[in-house]
Amino acid sequence: MTSSIRIRKRGSAAIVATAALALVLSACSGGDSGGGDSGDGGDGGDAAATEIDCAPYEEFGDLEGTTVSVYTSIVEPESDTQIESYKPFTECTGVEIAYEGSREFEAQLLLRIQSNTLPDIAFLPQPGLLRTIVAEYPDAIKPAPEATTAMVEEYFNGAWKEYGSVDGTFYAAPLGSNVKSFVWYSPSMFEEAGYEVPETWDDMMALSEEIAGAGGALPWCAGVESGDATGWAGTDFIEDVVLRSAGIDVYDQWVTHEIPFNDPAIVEAFDTAGEILKNPDYVNAGLGGVDSIATTPWGTAGLGVLDGTCWMHRAANFYATQLPEGTNVAPDGDIWAFYLPGDGETSPVLVGGEFTAAFADRPEVQAFQTYLASADWANAKAIATPDGGWISANQGLERDNLTQEFDLLSYDALNADPEAQRFDGSDLMPGNVGAGTFWTGIVNWLTGSSTEDVVDTIEASWQD
């Protein structure tokens, strides 16, 4: 499969109703479209109806009538654009994609492995979960095929391939990527109050104190409830603080367990985060007390920024997908975000993403894996997501296909100095820790447990 492909349904012409999608996937040159009249599309004069050439997909062979099942934590509304981005593949190969999203993905996937009711493909949000599955169920996940490997080596920084590898074997190609080191705020509220976007952590804390002292809405709102994955949004906050208070080297030692989870540097990071998250004078604006953070859904926690009941909300770039339809995300719009500051001299960035793991090696499954690792899919996904909230570390993703200002901001952050980037720590940790005791530890910490009790419990759960 080549990049910048033109797609035509085998044996006939395929009409793609989305003009923008066709613009990404269609080349400006090439031979006969092989079409003639498609027999579809009404009067045939619709500018959005464009033929696409499927010739490059022929290398996959005859896949007509086959099905690939996909299991993922990506649910509505994000799932809609995921499914839309598969159309070039399904139109050209005849493969049906049976998509299932679940908010209880992490727990349910392990149960499915144990009961041998496996999907063909799962989008793993944690490399640590990949390592856990490979270690505990060594025959479950299939190594990535050569074609998928070639795509990843061509389009991704080497670190991303390493995230999808276990003990030197490459299993899971990167899918979407995200940037987590953002604080969402209302530009108009800041302007009316005369507040400046903080450039250091100390500036941000001083601003929080000023807002708290002014009365009215509290400075921060937060929420970590996410079904069986409750707590993950809090682990992101802690990880961002570790990068800033302890530094990149200590962060690396922490996520690989070269230092214990209850190392003094990690205790300090929890306490630093707690100056916001466990401070009743700062949180939880319009939502309740500190303990309400544990029960407030992460997707709605920051919406108070839009109605003036909240000043700031720390969340990743994909928080844009949780905003109401019609929200203007712009520097002078309804909501925008600034970089979560540190010491003003270094600029660490917390990143994350999903990885495509296959539990079957049938030809249609391997073909879909390869498509998802390609630049073609990355660009199709970008154009299928016009409301924003999605980017990829795929270096074949064309910046011009991102239509939202915030996605461009995120894209630039993701493609800046890779030495300043670190992958989500809980996602790199063993599954029972990163997606287990760390998540539950966050809930316990927010509802009254001390930092020492929480980090000691997490450390006790980590087995080398």
State mean pLDDT (0 to 100 scale): 87
Helix content: 25-40%
- What percent strand? 5-15%
State the name of the first-level CATH class of the largest domain. Alpha Beta
Number of domains: 3
CATH topology of the largest domain, by name, is D-Maltodextrin-Binding Protein, domain 2
Report the radius of gyration as a whole number of Å: 23 Å
Structural class: alpha/beta
Low-confidence stretches: 2-50
Biggest sheet features: 6 strands, mixed
Number of strands: 13
Shape: globular
Classified in CATH, the superfamily of the largest domain is Periplasmic binding protein-like II
Q: Cα distance, first to last residue?
A: 41 Å
- The CATH level-2 architecture of the largest domain is identified as 3-Layer(aba) Sandwich
Q: Number of helical segments?
A: 19
Protein name: Sugar ABC transporter substrate-binding protein
Signal peptide: 1-29
Organism: Serinibacter arcticus
Keywords: Signal, Transport
3D architecture notes:
- This is Sugar ABC transporter substrate-binding protein.
- With 464 residues, the chain is an alpha/beta fold.
- It has 3 domains: 1-59, no CATH class; 60-177 and 352-416, Periplasmic binding protein-like II (D-Maltodextrin-Binding Protein, domain 2), CATH 3.40.190.10; 182-351 and 421-461, D-Maltodextrin-Binding Protein, domain 2.
- The chain has helices at 19-25, 78-85, 87-93, 105-115, 127-136, 146-155, 158-163, 187-193, 201-213, 232-245, 248-255, 264-277, 304-307, 363-372, 375-383, 405-414, 425-428, 431-446, 451-461; strands at 15-16, 50-51, 67-72, 96-101, 121-124, 165-166, 169-170, 173-179, 182-185, 312-314, 336-339, 349-358, 421-423.
- Strands 3, 4, 5, 8, 12 and 13 form a 6-stranded mixed beta sheet that branches. A 3-stranded antiparallel beta sheet has the order 10-9-11.
- The longest helix has 16 residues, at 431-446.
- The two termini are 41 Å apart.
